[in-house]
Amino acid sequence: MIRSITQQKPMEEIEVLLNGINRVFIIGCGTCVTLTQTGGIFQVEAMKNSLSEKGKVVTGTTVVPVACDNLTTDILREFEAQLKQADGLLIMTCAFGVQTIARQINKMAVPALNTLFIGKETGAGEYNEVCTQCGACVIGETGGICPVTACHKGLVNGPCGGTNNGKCEIDSNKDCAWTMIYNRLKDLGRLDVMRIYKKPRNHLGEPSPGKFQIPV
Ligand code: SF4
Ligand code: SF4
After folding, report:
1. Dist CA 67 CA 77 (whole Å)
2. Residues 2-41: pLDDT tens digits?
3. Could you tell me the residue range of the domain that residue 158 belongs to?
4. How distant, in Å, are the alpha carbons of 22, 67, 119, 213 from that of 59?
5. Co-location of 106 and 166 in the same domain
6. Could you tell me if 92 and 6 lie in one domain?
7. What is the whole-number distance in angstroms between the Cα of residue 165 and the centre of ligand 2?
8. How far is the CA of 26 from the centre of ligand 1 (A)?
9. Which of 173, 50, 165 lies closest to 112 in space, CA to CA?
10. 166 in ligand 2 pocket by Cβ < 6 Å?
11. Residues 73-127: pLDDT tens digits?
12. Is residue 11 included in any domain, yes or no?
């Protein structure tokens, strides 16, 4: 299952972000952050207790089903009175959820989590990064294996000189991404695409904010 992977910010950072916000309404989410245990019912409750101990007034809490869905605004209407009493919102969702809520509720929105990457669940509570949404997908020429996330150096032309018996020179416990790509392409009878030179990635990225429009 693919998820937006998040990690709670250090409490000290959250406290700084909440400076001047004494009455807080806390919002979690029932999807990705519940599975990663960063913004589900239990984490929201723990945050409520922690903030109360630090002298904040928690006017209310809720865990909405899908924070990044526009229906979240309708769900939050149920908490109108508690939201009104709050100076700000502490939002325990991915950045997309924070932005969705911030756009629709006229209160200072403080994220409690850092959004790390899109990840695939590999075991109970374990997620591997599968895509950093680099904006220039190359996996059509790498047998479907993403070198940007799987290679320690993020090389789009590989392997580097350090690959060693199929292991990565940076982490010998890790398979070299480019050896995996070679093996996959070999199995597919398409080693020819290993020879296609890929332009260096544009680390400056696209102009921000990025835009996309479905052609009509
Ligand atoms: S190359 Fe990798 S990081 Fe970039 S879009 Fe494709 S899968 Fe995502
Ligand atoms: S050894 Fe392989 S995975 Fe490691 S940095 Fe070099 S090409 Fe990338």
Report:
1. 14
2. 788 999 999 999 999 999 999 999 999 999 999 899 999 9
3. 134-195
4. 10, 19, 33, 40
5. no
6. yes
7. 11
8. 33
9. 50
10. no
11. 899 999 999 999 999 999 999 988 888 888 888 888 899 999 888 888 788 878 8
12. yes
Residue nearest to atom 4 of ligand 2 (CA): 168
Answer whether 146 contacts ligand 2 (Cβ < 6 A). no
Q: How does DSSP assign the chain, residue by residue?
A: -EEEEEEEPPHHHHHHHTTT--EEEEEEESSHHHHTTSSSHHHHHHHHHHHHHTT-EEEEEEEES-TTSTTHHHHHHTTHHHHHH-SEEEEES-HHHHHHHHHHS-SEEEE-EEEEEEEEEEETTEEEEEE---SS--GGGTTT--HHHHSTT--SS---TT-BTTB-SS-TTSB-HHHHHHHHHHHTT-GGGGGSPPPPP-TT-SPSSP------
Indicate which ligand has the atom closest to the C-alpha of 146: 1
Asked whether residue 13 falls in the same domain as residue 50, the answer is: yes
Q: Is the peptide bond before 207 cis (omega within 30 degrees of 0)?
A: no
The rounded distance, in Å, linking the Cα atoms of 51 and 43 is 12
